[in-house]
Write a structure and sequence with these properties.
By secondary structure, the chain is of the alpha+beta class. It has four domains: 2-56; 95-183, Pdz3 Domain, CATH 2.30.42.10; 189-396, 2-enoyl-CoA Hydratase, Chain A, domain 1 (Alpha-Beta Complex); 401-536, no CATH class. It has 18 helices and 23 strands. Strands 3, 4, 5, 6, 7 and 8 form a six-stranded antiparallel beta sheet that branches. A six-stranded mixed beta sheet has the order 10-11-12-15-16-23, with helices on both faces. The longest helix has 26 residues, at 500-525. It is globular.
Amino acid sequence: MKRLKKIVMASSITILLGITFFGAVAFTSDDFKISKSLDVFFTLFRELDIFYVDKIDPEKLVNTGINAMLESLDPYTEYIPESEKADFDFLTTGKYGGIGALIRKNGTNAQIVEIYEGSPAQKAGIRVGDEISFINGTPVGKMEIGEVSSHLKGDPGSSVKLVLNDSYSDSIFTKVVIRERIKMPSVPYSGMVQSDVGYVRLSSFTVGCSDELRLAINDLRNKGAKKLILDLRGNPGGILDEAVKIVNFFVSKNQLVVYTHGKATQFDTKYLTSDQPIDTLMPLVLLVNSSSASASEIVSGSLQDLDRAVIVGTRTFGKGLVQTTRKLSYGGQLKVTTAKYYIPSGRCIQALDYSHRNPDGSVGHIPDSLIRAFKTKNGRTVYDGGGISPDVYLSSDTLSTICIKAYSENRFFDFANIYFRSHPTIPAPSKFVVKDTLIADFVHYLVKNKFSYKTEEEALLDRLDSLVKDDKNGGALQAKVKSLREDVSRGIPELVNKNRNDFAYFLTDEIVKRYYFQGGTYPAIFKFDSQLSKSIAIIDAPARYNKLLKR
């Protein structure tokens, strides 16, 4: 009863506060809707808490309500409770305290799927493929993967005791790992791809990524680079200020890069270059794809609008929304969409219209009738309404379905772990070649481990076979199906060799990564990257390059 009185009093105070607050200003229709909605929510929550048949967790219930409410807006507006702040900070800074390894749940254990170069995990002698069974004496069997990750993280300098097993040799061992501050590089690789062509891979827009990129560019220039390819494929974006700094590397001071416009005028901001550039004349090609988003699109779109770079690849994702983080009570934060961004030509490249949903609640693309044409600095025509369209469209390399199936079943991952444990060294990444003997070993591994695959023809014959079984002439038809199956059936060795290049790509990527980590894979797989080789051809042809930019 006392509890009920307290709740009723709290409700009365809340309502009175609402009346007092709104009474102090001009009361509008929206004000009333807000006051009414908050009162309805509070009274509903009170009734549930008092009368629901089972005990409820108030925090969990409110979080569910908050998340459902935000889902009705857009996927970028999120509530970040204090318990998830560390994960959010990692996304913006690329830093965390831990052992420097990626993990996934594998049965009752947590398997190491990648180790970062120079990390505590590497120093402790942990290898990719090892499985963690205990963390500081606590079994990981019943933990969710997020909980395992939380147990591995901690203050730099603190220790964590791991019990691991090597499933490839059935050995069990214990490691005490000293946690360190882990910083994920935004530039995982940079190097020369030709005598005068430099290449930089930028994987994220975290705090300080522009400094990393500046160092990489200057290093390449010292090595003789007179042309540059900046790879933004798969880069999901990040901090807007870093994107502005990066554009500034290639264009002069006081140049408009992007401006934002929102409902609240405090978010209407123009972002201009503020420093002296690195080089305004060096030929520049940007590689993009459908996973290049947000800050990646600011960089590629601005440089396209300013006719400073040739954009190559496929259409980008189309995220033209800006998020701002707002502090909430009890350590929580709200990441809220506050504005849209517009690049120098005046276009917004947001692809999905979250403010006007379809009757079924789904989100539609900006209709063609609303897409507008804009002009670049040199008068080229560009469009809004859905990402950055490249100046030169180059389709992404496609993979065979059998190769995708083998990858999804972690066959390359497992084979590389076996290979690593039996081969102490391999050649340098750029010199590593998948030879016929390695392909044969992989085929043997697939067959031994019962890898199965049916071609599209075989799948159709399976369906036909099931249909003719009930037919009165089924026997004769089944004989024909059997004959057809013999004609189209191909064994695993034949299918692998038919798609040899696809298999060689994944074998190269996984094996080289075991010895030279993530950065080493780039020079190893360049020979499989047709978009990169065509980008080199574009930047190496001055007449074509200048014509694309209308110079």
